[in-house]
Write a structure and sequence with these properties.
Layout: E1 8-12, E2 15-18, H1 32-59, H2 68-91, H3 98-107, E3 118-127, H4 133-140, H5 145-157, E4 161-163, E5 170-171, H6 172-176, H7 186-190, E6 195-199, E7 203-213, H8 221-254
Antiparallel strand pairs: 1-2, 3-4, 3-5, 3-7, 6-7
Helix pairs in contact: 3-8, 4-5
Length: 263
């Protein structure tokens, strides 16, 4: 659109904002009220931006306003980063042998020490008025998978609830949030036995502890094998990039594409 036919809607010093520039910021199908709000916000931001640019232009030296070198440096870094990422995508084998994961775990146990207790467990929450509560107490006292299955059926039959925390090691503090008890010393409490029994005014809570790993012990491998896999992949990426740089250097040197001069 010719400059002389454009309709100005704001000016800051000798810089103009024109009406046709608003089309890009007003959502299609917006109501008149929403369009007005969007336009006002855009104009306000535009004015503040122009004022700041003017102030910067007046107060910076020509050298300070010359960003050519910074832009070139940024472009070079971006090119290198993009190529490295593409190289990794094409060449990296993301399959990690579980034996390698276990080896790394065993060689770095001190780096995986727990600062809390974790447990493998299930929790059954059963209404107090159910018949055959003694059966549920029998199930929770047993480590048999059959009795665990029986507990699930018992809860379903009598309107209780059952969770095994997805079958993974769980922070004991998370288990405690589901129980009507307060425990100050987790380690001492957990060493008292493989079952926890508690109740409130409406329910009995039955916890079966399959395994307990105490604070200060290595976190179970199955809980962190994914993290270790990521560590190994990161190390593999670094090794690949180091080899890439070395190969590029040696190839250029062999083809006499690198020369060093006295300075």
């Amino acid at each position: 659109m010719p400059e002389e036919t454009r309709v100005p809607i704001a000016r800051v010093f000798d810089i103009y904002l024109y009406q046709d520039e608003l089309k890009e910021v007003i959502p299609e199908g917006a109501s008149p009220e929403d369009s007005s709000i969007a336009a006002d916000n855009f104009i306000d931001l535009w004015v503040k931006k122009q004022l700041m640019l003017k102030k910067a232009d007046l107060n910076l030296t020509p050298e300070q306003k010359d960003f050519e070198q910074q832009l070139e440096d940024f472009k070079q870094k971006l090119l290198i980063y993009t190529y490295r990422q593409k190289f990794i995508e094409q060449k990296l084998d993301t399959n990690t042998n579980y034996e390698d994961i276990a080896t790394y775990y065993n060689e770095n146990l001190q780096g995986f020490l727990l600062n809390r207790e974790v447990v493998k467990a299930y929790l059954a929450k059963i209404p107090l008025n159910v018949p055959d509560m003694h059966a549920a107490l029998k199930f929770v006292s047993s480590a048999s998978p059959i009795d665990s299955a029986n507990m699930i059926k018992f809860c379903a039959q009598y309107g209780g609830s059952f969770t095994n925390f997805n079958g993974i090691y769980t922070d004991f503090t998370e288990v405690l949030t589901l129980l009507p008890i307060t425990v100050t010393n987790h380690e001492t409490f957990l060493k008292q036995g493989k079952t926890i029994i508690a109740e409130d005014e409406g329910f009995k809570y039955l916890v079966r502890l399959y395994d307990v790993v105490y604070k200060g012990m290595p976190e179970p491998l199955e809980s962190i094998d994914h993290n270790i896999k990521e560590i190994l992949l990161t190390k593999k990426k670094k090794q690949m990039l180091d080899e890439l740089e070395m190969n590029l250097f040696n190839d250029a040197l062999n083809h006499k594409n690198i020369e060093y001069y006295t300075y």
